[in-house]
Design a protein that fits this description.
By secondary structure, the protein is of the alpha+beta class. It contains five helices and six strands; from the N terminus they run H-H-H-E-E-E-E-E-E-H-H. A hairpin with a 6-residue loop joins strand 4 and strand 5. Helix 2 runs antiparallel to helix 4.
């Protein structure tokens, strides 16, 4: 009886360790989720402009890591351009582990609006990020010096 208990205990211990290791893997957002986050912070009139797009087109949408910058590898970087009465360009950075989105045009500005918060909640659920984990890994915008 004692040996069976020890075997079961050892099995459960290794199962718990393996399950915990899997849970500690950082999950990242997808390219489609990143696009949705960007669209959710853009003014609705801007979204209606012709030829609005995320560039550069040479990035691989299937590989979210292709949007990383070598100098700041934690964040993904995106450029949005459009044609309109005034052609425009905006720059964004996204934390792929939290879904937080920042303006690279306005110093240290993290976006927040009702639509974005709802989307971030869904994204964080899909990457299995709990509120407690979010608070632990939350960081500032990549070029913020404050």
């Amino acid at each position: 009886m004692g040996k069976i208990f020890i075997i079961i205990f050892v099995f459960l211990y290794f199962f718990a360790v393996a399950a915990n290791a899997v849970d500690n893997i950082k999950h990242k957002i997808t390219f489609e989720q990143a696009k949705a986050l960007i669209w959710s912070v853009m003014p609705s009139d801007t979204l209606q402009l012709p030829k609005i797009q995320i560039i550069p087109a040479d990035k691989d949408p299937e590989n979210i890591d292709s949007h990383k910058d070598h100098d700041n590898p934690r964040f993904l970087f995106f450029t949005v351009i459009w044609n309109g009465p005034q052609d425009g360009v905006l720059y964004y950075s996204i934390d792929p582990y939290t879904g937080d989105i920042f303006s690279l045009t306005m110093d240290c500005t993290e976006f927040s609006n009702k639509k974005l918060r709802a989307l971030q909640k869904k994204v964080r659920q899909t990457i299995r990020l709990t509120d407690a984990e979010y608070r632990k890994i939350k960081t500032k915008e990549p070029f913020c010096t404050e």
